[in-house]
Amino acid sequence: MSKMITNKKHLEFLLAIKKEKRNIRIVQLLIFLSFFSMWEISSIQGWINPLLFSSPSKIWSLFLEKASDGSLYIHVAFTLGETVLGFILGTLFGTLLAALLWWSPFLSKVLDPYLVVLNAMPKVALGPILIVAIGPNFGSIIAMGVLISVIITTLVVYTAFQNVDENYVKVVRSFGGDKKQCFKEVILPACFPSIISSLKVNVGLSWVGVIVGEFLVSKQGLGYMIIYGFQVFNFTLVLMSLLIIAVMATLMYQGVEYLESKLIKHHS
Amino acid sequence: MAFLQLKSVGQTYFSRTSATTALEDISLSINEGEFTSILGPSGCGKSTLLSIIAGLLIPTAGSVMVNNKPVNHPHPKIGYMLQQDYLFPWKTIEDNITLGLKLRNQNTDEHIQGAFRLLKEIGLEHTKSKYPSELSGGMRQRVALVRTLATQPKMLLLDEPFSALDYQTKLKLEDLVSSTLKEHGKTAILVTHDIGEAIAMSDNVILLSSNPGRIFRTFKIPKTLKSLLPFEARQHSDFSATFQQIWEELEHIEQNDHEQETS
C-alpha cells in the first residue's frame, strides 16, 4: 500500500519536472518569436530605420538568394575553417606552453609578469603588425585566432596543472616514475576537464580573432561580408552574416560540449 | 639480518623565516616479515619518516639502507600506500592495478596475471572494467592494496590507510590487509594515530614524540596477540593491558610537550 503511494508521489514528481521543462521551452520559444516578429513589424511600420536595421524577412530572402547561388557556402566554410583551426591551435599551443611552465618552475617564475601583461593586452591591436609580418592572407587571420586564445589558455591550464592533487604524483613517484611519466599519467589526464572548458572559452575568442582578422585583410568569409555590407551600406548583409555567426558559434559550442561528455565521463 | 635500517635519520625543513626540525636521530632496524607500527601524536613527522623510507624524500641527516644498500630513490622492493586510495578516476580498475607494473616496466603477461589473481583474492575480480567512482570507499582501498602489491614489493609502507574509512569497513580491512600481508610474507610499516590498530596489527610498535619527532619507546606486542587476526586480537585479554601501557606512555609524551612549551 505504502509502496503504491510512493510510486504515485514519484510519478507526480516526474510530471512536475517535465512540466517545468516544457514551460521553460515555451517561454524561450515565445521570446524568440516575439523578438523576430517585433523586429519585422517595427521595420514595416517604420518605428526603426529599415535601412539600418533591415528586417527578418529581408534577411531571409537574402539568405535564400545567397544560398542558392552558392556564394554563401564558400564564405561560411572559409570562416568556419579558420575559426576551428584557430581555436584548436590556440588550445594546443596554450596547453604546450602550460606544460613547459609546469616542467620548469624557473621558467614559470621568469615568464610570470610577461604573461600577465600579454594577457591584459588587447590582442586585436596586434592585427596591423601581423598583416605586415605575415602578409594579408589566410595565415595572418589564423594567427589572430590563435593569438587571442593562446595566453588565456596557458594561464588557465597551467593553474589547473598546479592544482592537481600532489598525492597522485606521489603514487606515480613511489613506483619509480619520473617527471615525464608524472605528466603523462597524472597531470595531463587530470586536467582534461580544464582543457575542455578552456576549449569552450576559446570557441568564442577565436570567432572574435577570425572576424577581426577578416575585417582587416580578407576577400572572403563572414567577416569580409560584414565589412563589405558596411561599405556599400547593405545592412541586411551585415545582419545576415551576424546571425550566421551566432548559429555557427552555438553549434561549435555544442560540439565541444558533446566532446566533453564523451571524453570525461568518469572524472568525479 | 635486518631488511631495513635507518641510521640517525633527521629531517629539517627550511623556510624563509625558520628552519623546522621534523625528525631527529631516528635509528631503527626492521627484519624481514615483521610488521611494525609507528605511533605518535599528529605532527610528529610520521608521514615524513615514511616518505624518507619510501625514497621520495632524501633526509637532511643520516641514511636509509635496504639490504645494506643505501636508498636514495623509490626502491622497487618497497610499496607505498597512502591515506586515501588515490585511484586514478580516469582509469579502469584494471588499468589502475597495473599502473605500477607499467611504470616499473614489468608489464609482462605473467605480472599482469599476478595482479588479476590478487584482485580475485580480495574478491573484486568483477570490478576489472569498472571505474573507481563506481566502487565504495572500502572497495577502493582494497584495489589500492592490490595496486601496491602488484609490483611484488618485499616491504609495504602504509600511511594511515584506514583513516578515511568508516569504523566497520576499517575493522574488516585490517583483517584483510593483515592476512594478505602474512600470506605473502611481506614486511610492513604502518603509520597510524590509532593505538588499537597499531596493537592489533603489529609485531612491534614504535612510539614517536613530537617537536622534533624522536623515537620515544619501542614496544614488543605479546606473542598471544601477534598470531591472531586484528579483529580477534582486539577481543583478547592481553589487548587492553597493552593498550593501557601505550596509552600511559602517550600521555607522558604529551605532558613533556606541554612542559617544553610552558618552560
Share of helical residues of chain A: over 70%
Number of helical segments with 4 or more residues of chain B: 10
Number of strands of chain A: 0
Shape of chain A: flat
Shape of chain B: globular
Q: What's the multimeric state?
A: heterodimer
Poorly predicted regions of chain B are: none
Within CATH, the superfamily of chain B carries the name P-loop containing nucleotide triphosphate hydrolases
- Please report which band the strand proportion of chain B falls in: under 5%, 5-15%, 15-25%, 25-35%, 35-45% or over 45%: 25-35%
How large a portion of the residues of chain A is in β-strands, by DSSP E? under 5%
Would you tell me which CATH topology of the largest domain in chain A applies?
Answer: MetI-like fold
Architecture per CATH nomenclature, i.e. the level-2 architecture of chain B: 3-Layer(aba) Sandwich
Q: Which strands sit side by side, in order, in the main sheet of chain B?
A: 6-7-8-3-9-10
> Could you name the CATH class of the largest domain in chain A?
Mainly Alpha
